[in-house]
Design brief:
Length: about 625
């Protein structure tokens, strides 16, 4: 039973998003706890650290109030303060300190205020500076933000180990689900292979830009909500309020959205890697691909010039970077230019000669075996290479001539020997027929005569096919191409084999277009091709099955049948003396399909064989097709 890919994907996505969000939340709280020393300090030390960040505003508020009013309201919750002049610290101007009271986050700081214009010789501002001694009462009796925040530290310290454990578990789940998500990316229910979505086909730079903009937007929102979180802990006093709950909900939504975007990025990168399109759809890969395509179409000498200029530019940069501290920039630049200008002469001479060698090799590879490489102006290894290519051309010419002569001699030998054999063979067939007609009481005589006639006729057919196969393979058969109605040719060939097909219990189903399809073909050779195909069907098709013969408007003829005892590959079936069964007990000689394939090539067409199990399919494609 196949696994439910869709269900696995949903589970992987949900698990990854939730675990990633939990990892960030628990990790952030753990980091905040470490920042304020919750895990390595007593509660008093934690409160002292956090309150020290909070009393900064209260300190300036006290100094400003005294500077403006000459007095300070004593009731400031849990804040305790003393104000004095900076130049007379022993003179207390205002205070609500209580004797013997323990203070947290106790500190002193100077607060200066401009007093307006006063004439001095230097024309300076007059500034009044106060010394503020401030702290938070350790008893925390008054109901203010300090009292509201204090219980949170105890709770934080209590659940600190749990937050650390949640962080570790979330990390493991996020990694595991991320790997699982990458493994499932691109797979589809009930189908093999990897499939790309429309999003996976976007350029990677567009995907990354979309992802970066989304992350920046989310981070901007988080920064707006939690700005200066480590420096102003007053926001903790909102705990339990509607604003606190709203902020938590927004923070969770932002985390889930970021986790979903990260999952989408992992999935698309995984699909691109699996489909081998990751590099191709990157901006750098696209640019390099365009450069590569442009570089590929450049002539060889121009490619060499581009490479040489690139190397020269790199040398200039390296020389200026290495020697600039010891000399002027112009010196290394001048040295590299002079050196590379001198070296350019042999470099481009070599490039031009390589181009000449390459052109000669391509001419020989394209079949122009008579091409000779011009060796003038060459010396050394290049001249030897040019002479070797000319000797190779001579050798190829001699080899082709010898091969042609050998093939011609084989064809003539087969033709002559076949002709010499056909003369006595015709006599054997004739006399076997005469013996079969003689009246005799011995019935064995007639039986022997029939066998002799049948086998000699088969041998005669083999000789004819052998000669025709030899001529077709060596190109000694000339095709006279004329416009022919392919449907008429097929109908004529089928009509001659209706009885044979019926004898083997084969049902022929033809599908010919109503509109005549004209092809450029040789009528005689086409009839031979179709005749060989029909003979092949009567010999090797499984009895009691159907044979399908179709013709389309593109001039393509398709013959399909169910074969018996077919054990060969399609490539082997078109070779000479190869038959569809290995016992060689049938009447065929293994030349039919080979002759048909050669004749189709002679007419400028093609014959293709396909085998799928016991389904045998032959496709003929004619050239010069037109529909009347």
């Amino acid at each position: 039973m196949k696994k439910q890919i869709t269900l696995q994907k949903w589970i992987a996505w949900v698990l990854f998003i939730v675990s990633t969000a939990a990892l960030v939340m628990a990790g952030a709280l753990t980091v905040i706890g470490a920042a304020v020393g919750i895990y390595d300090a007593p509660i008093e030390g934690v409160e002292d650290h956090v309150f020290r960040q909070m009393i900064h505003d209260d300190m300036w508020s006290v100094a400003a109030e005294y500077h403006d009013r000459g007095a300070v309201e004593n009731d400031r919750g849990n804040i305790r303060f003393e104000v004095s002049k900076a130049d007379a610290p022993d003179v207390i101007l205002a205070s609500n300190m209580q004797e013997g009271e323990v203070l947290l986050a106790e500190t002193e700081q100077l607060c200066g205020f401009d007093g307006g214009y006063v004439y001095y010789e230097e024309s300076e501002w007059e500034e009044t500076v106060y010394c503020v001694h401030i702290g938070v009462s350790a008893e925390l009796k008054a109901e203010d933000r300090y009292q509201k925040i204090a219980p949170l530290f105890t709770t934080f310290m209590k659940y600190g180990p749990i937050l650390a454990a949640v962080t570790a578990v979330s990390f493991v789940l996020a990694v595991a689900s991320g790997v699982w998500l990458c493994f499932l990316a691109g797979k589809r229910e009930g189908k093999e292979g990897i499939f790309e979505r429309r999003f996976d086909k976007w350029p990677l730079i567009a995907v990354l830009l979309f992802y970066i903009l989304a992350i920046i937007g989310n981070c901007g929102l988080a920064a707006l909500l939690f700005d200066d979180i480590f420096y102003d802990w007053s926001w903790l006093s909102w705990y339990g309020t509607s604003l606190w709950k709203l902020m938590v909900c927004l923070f969770v939504l932002v985390l889930l959205l970021d986790a979903a975007l990260l999952a989408l990025l992992l999935a698309t990168v995984s699909v691109r890697i699996k489909c081998h399109t990751f590099w191709k759809r990157t901006l750098i890969g696209h640019v390099l691909s365009l450069i590569g395509k442009g570089f590929k179409v450049l002539p060889f000498v121009w490619k060499s010039a581009v490479i040489y200029l690139g190397v020269t530019f790199a040398e200039i940069i390296m020389a200026m970077a290495l020697f600039s501290p010891y000399c002027d920039d112009e010196i290394p630049f001048f040295v590299v230019i002079v050196k590379n200008t001198i070296l350019a002469i042999p470099y481009f001479w070599v490039a031009a000669n390589l181009k000449r060698m390459k052109y000669s090799v391509l001419r020989l590879a394209d079949g122009d075996i008579g091409y000779k490489t011009d060796a003038s102006g060459l010396f050394g290894e290049f001249k030897e290479a040019a002479l070797d290519l000319n000797r190779l051309s001579d050798g190829l010419g001699l080899a082709v001539e010898a091969r042609t002569k050998s093939e011609r001699m084989k064809t003539e030998l087969i033709t002559n020997v076949s002709h010499d054999i056909k003369t006595p063979l015709t006599s054997i067939v004739s006399y076997a027929d005469l013996i079969g007609r003689e009246e005799t009481e011995n019935e064995k005589i007639h039986e022997y005569a029939d066998i002799l006639k049948k086998q000699s006729t088969r041998l005669k057919k083999l000789l004819e096919d052998l000669v025709e196969a030899s001529k077709a393979a060596t190109g000694n058969i000339k095709a006279t191409l004329m416009p022919c109605d392919a449907g008429v040719l097929i109908t004529q060939a089928v009509g001659e084999y209706e009885e044979k097909l019926a004898e083997h219990d084969l049902t022929l189903i033809t599908d010919l277009p109503e509109t005549p399809v004209t092809v450029a073909a040789d009528g005689r050779l086409t009839q031979r091709v179709l005749d060989n195909l029909m003979q092949n069907i009567t010999k090797y098709a499984k009895e009691g099955t159907r044979v399908f013969l179709t013709l389309n408007e593109a001039g393509q003829v398709t013959v399909k049948n169910t074969s018996r005892d077919l054990i060969l590959h399609p490539e082997e079936l078109s070779e000479r003396f190869v038959r569809g069964e290995s016992s060689r007990t049938s009447e065929g000689n293994g030349l039919g399909l080979a002759i048909a394939s050669s004749l189709m090539q002679t007419m400028g067409g093609s014959l293709k064989i396909d085998v799928d199990g016991d389904l045998f399919k032959v496709t003929l494609q004619f050239g010069g097709v037109s529909v009347s």
